[in-house]
Amino acid sequence: MNARILQTAAAVILAVSLAVAASGFFILDQTEEAIILRLGAWRATVTEPGLHFKMPLLESVAIYDNRLLALNTPDEQILLGDQKRLVVDTYTRYRIVDPLRFYQSVRTESNARSQLGSIIQSSMRRVMGTVMMPAILSDQRAEVMRTILKDVAEAAQPLGVTVVDVRLHRADLPEETSQAIYDRMKSERERQAKELRAQGYEWGQQIRSKADRDRTVLLAEAQRQSQILRGEGDAESSRVYGEAFSQDPQFYAFYRSLQAYRSALGEGTTLVLSPDNDFLKFFSGGPKR
Q: What region, left, alpha or beta, does residue 40 occupy, with left being phi > 0 and alpha being psi -120 to 50 degrees?
């Protein structure tokens, strides 16, 4: 029994010893760097990747990413120098360059992002509060962002990080301002549309009036020409009839009488006349030579 207890105790002690010994090793990736702390005090900074040793129980390790990190700030309204409001959000690229200072100032990356976001927002309000809206919408925007980057980089140095870039991800007008501008643009377009419709209606009236006037002139001219031509035709017809009548008046009278007979004595016509009536003179003896 005592031997079994001793074996069990030995096994427990061995397991604990192995666990404590294993806790003294840590692996550092090539994208990481670390600081070793002995009872909370800095002992060493490790930048080389691989397997490293620390004293179990007495020392702890804080590991940080040494790659380029990203930080996106939430939307924020900023008052510009011309008293216009702009909703902006930024994206920032930064790198931890001093792990010890980083640990002493912010401890964790989440705290670093919080403090760095406050620095960026403060710098944005300070710098953009002196510029006008046209500067944000023109080539001057790059110069404004360089000023903000310089300001943020200087303020972030005590955190043990270097800020590589700060850019505007979005710069929009506030929703209420955008709606007001949209309504104003819509009313302006509607006003222009009404003016164009009125102008088009006026032009249409002028074109129709001119067309009606030209039509009246053309019809009058055509009627005048037709009356002239009709008069000339009637005159020519009278001349021809006169010449024909002068050549043989009796035959002409006979021909005109035949035309009168054809018109008056059509099918279904009843005409009661005296036999010696002048209208029927050609029925009795024909034309006289």
A: left
Residue 191 pairs in a beta bridge with none
Give strand pairing partners of 170.
Answer: 89
Q: What DSSP character marks residue 73?
A: P
Nearest to 73 by CA among 93, 89, 85, 88: 89
d(CA 38, CA 44): 9
**How far lies 268's CA from each of 81, 263, 264, 265, 271, in Å?**
107, 12, 10, 8, 10
| Cα separation, 105 vs 116, whole angstroms | 12
The tens digit of pLDDT for each residue in 13-71 reads 655 555 555 557 778 888 889 888 887 778 888 888 888 777 777 788 888 889 999 99
**CA nearest neighbour of 148 among 120, 171, 112:** 120
**pTM greater than 0.70 (yes/no):** no
- Domain spans, the chain: 14-65, 69-173, 189-247, 250-285
Distance of CA 288 to the CA centre of its chain: 101
Tens digit of each residue's pLDDT (9 = 90 or more) over 238-261: 787 777 777 767 777 777 776 776
| Residue 28 to residue 34: CA distance in whole angstroms | 8
- Asked if residue 78 lies in contact with residue 125, where contact means CB atoms within 8 angstroms, the answer is yes
Whether domain 69-173 has CATH 3.30.470.20: the reply is: no
Interatomic CA distance for residues 234 and 85, integer angstroms: 90
Q: Which two tokens stand for residue 106?
A: 């912010």
Q: Dig out the tokens for 124 from the structure.
A: 């944005």
